[in-house]
Hints:
Layout: E1 2-6, H1 14-25, E2 31-35, H2 41-53, H3 59-77, H4 84-101, H5 108-116, H6 118-133, E3 138-141, E4 148-149, H7 160-173, H8 175-179, E5 182-186, E6 189-192, E7 197-199, H9 205-216, E8 220-225, E9 246-248, H10 249-258, H11 268-273, E10 278-282, E11 291-294, E12 305-319, H12 327-339, E13 344-349, E14 353-359, H13 365-373, E15 376-390, H14 394-401, E16 404-411, E17 415-422
Parallel strand pairs: 1-2, 1-8, 2-5, 3-5, 4-6, 8-10, 9-11
Antiparallel strand pairs: 6-7, 10-11, 12-14, 12-15, 13-14, 15-17, 16-17
Amino acid sequence: MKIFKFGGASVKDANAVKNVGKVIQQFDDKLIIVISAMGKTTNALEKLVNAYYFKKEGVEAILEEIKAFHYSIINELFDNEKHQIFQDIHNTFVEIEWEIEEEPVRSYDYVYDQIVSVGELLSTKIISAYLNEVNIKNQWLDIREVIQTDNSYRNANINWKLTEQLALELFTKNKTLSTSTYIVTQGFIGSSSENFTTTIGREGSDFTAAILAYCLNAESVTIWKDVPGMLNADPKWFDDTQQLNHISYHEAVELAYYGATVIHPKTIKPLQNKKIPLLVKSFLNPTEQGTRIDENTKEDARIPSFIFKMNQVLISISAKDYSFIVEDNLSEIFSKLSAHKITVNMMQNSAISFSICIDFNPFTTYQFIEELQKEYQVLYNENLELVTIRHYDDATLKRVTENKKILVEQKSRNTARLVMKDR
Ligand code: ASP
């Protein structure tokens, strides 16, 4: 059994859906196909939740747009207007309509999960029905029967034991699921013990694929992307990117941690724990090699990788009376960071100051700085970039620092990190 994952870009329109059929037909293995919401649907549903919850204008208009987008795809995929899918999609949208009919009474995060999760239900219903229509016989599965979580809405934690038990039970005992070659299901969503829908964090479908692979001891996971594999830099910043053909789980975790966005950071651990290889391949050229991630570390240092984080703020914190910044102060600073849900991308300390580099956020950054200013002297620099180079050398350092002023530089054996701004 193999697990495939198709993200939003790979199912963004009718042609893309047709292409999913072409990709999976090249395999005769048993496949569990995990699919995200179509195109930018999750963003659109987030907008809908915000408009509804905060009583802004345009709730209906946003919903109409989401509907029109999905109906235009099914109109293109299905000639028969009486096909059952039209009714199924209508019924799925009714779930949102019911939700937004009443005033919101429960928390924002709860409401978010009930509405945003519909994106994955829509996409998988459409794709499963289309594949069956063109004779790629498959079974649709509501993944909420398998993925069990706590009720931390929007960022739910997996109940591994229960999920594993349900997965094994369902895939061995359920006749349809155990005999179907292709199973189509949703990424990103799960179910709480009270049977409410939960979501596991943005871009979480990769993680869903890894959870299923872990629980079912799959042979491999393949993430199908619009890039040929994992590259050594985001093509947004570099023209001459190189593909990483083979890296280790460890290297992949490091790259994801520093901000490489190709795979969700939580994906690697379950796969590493069961030594299940992860493949990143192009849905446009499915026979090409792509990137393989497994235990083998041999090729990790072959090509340097670059990770850029823009719009960074460097904050330097020191005591007002020139005393040392000691553990008590650090503990206080970290609890403030945690209270504002701010992630520290890099930190450095000296005798009298402590510096952190964080993503700029128009809501929390200034609030956090103001709070600190009550007790500390705080200096900060905005509009910076943080560059991480894995397996750096003089040439790569020179390349990224050209015409830049370096504010902080940190080097370990394998990793160089630089906070810089334009000269
Ligand atoms: N649809 C969700 C998102 O856009 C989950 C995913 O695609 O991985 O974040």
